[in-house]
Amino acid sequence: MTTSALRMPADVGRYTIAKSFEVTARAITAFAGGVGDFNPVYFEDDRPDGLIAHPGMVFSWQWNSRFTPDIQLDVNLVRRGVHAWVDVRFNRAVREGDVITSQGQGIAVKQVRPGVLSAQRYTMCDSRGEVVVVMDSGGITRGAELDGEGMEIESTPPLPQRSTSSANGGQPVWTTTIPIDPQAPHVYTECADIWNPIHTERRVALAAGLPDIILHGSANITIALREVINRNMDGDPTRLRRFAGQFRGMVIPGTDVSVSALEVRDEGDREIVFYEMRNDQGELAIANGVVVAA
Known about the structure:
The chain folds into two domains: 1-157, Roll (Thiol Ester Dehydrase, Chain A); 159-294, Thiol Ester Dehydrase, Chain A, CATH 3.10.129. Helices cover 18% and strands 37% of the residues. It is built from six helices and 13 strands. The strands form two sheets. Strands 2, 3, 4, 5, 6, 8, 9, 10, 11, 12 and 13 form an eleven-stranded antiparallel β-sheet that branches. A two-stranded parallel ribbon has the order 1-7. Strand 4 (99-112) and strand 5 (115-125) form a beta hairpin.
């Protein structure tokens, strides 16, 4: 027996709620601890200029400002959504004492083979109204059909591309293996304030067709970013200007992941690191990763 596909409205241009976040020492240290990043800039709160906010905190602000209460979506559409990619651009580092206001807007939607691909842009401003961070985020609603024509009102700037020549003899510049603690999703959920039961409740994950609870995609990419900052940027997150990646395979808690820098390119005014993350089965968890540093 066949069933008709769920219809998804081509609703572009609408805004989410705007929500403000006080960047406190407690919030910074909790997030950094939740991804096992013990860089002193996130913990030594007696620093003269205060703590630097972990760059991955953008996911907390995005997650908690994603609501669109004036748009009624079929709950089945929401349940079929999966995170596909992210591209984050920084005008400056966020610091302790900042107040960040985040608001999203739907910027694109189109039909793709697995379902409907939609993109949102989250603009994150400080208390002076200056834009600090812009996050473009895409997701796929699996099995859905677009009700209307695809459209795009804003596009994501093109990313740097890897060299066509075989850099470093085709071998990674560096690779590190990282054990993922069995309780990692529970710790990250509470420290990042990002809750989805497929990450923490096994019965929900199994009912969704997953083999077990899985680590959040935002945690995976933040762990990879942790390694790049601490290995290629002298542990200085204030140099970060952009990071991006595509979410692919699952990471099961209690297994290992590997993060590799595939190419590191010095362009004078900026350094670019191309990276990937693989799960314990050798499958890509984060593909086409890019970090741009000043």
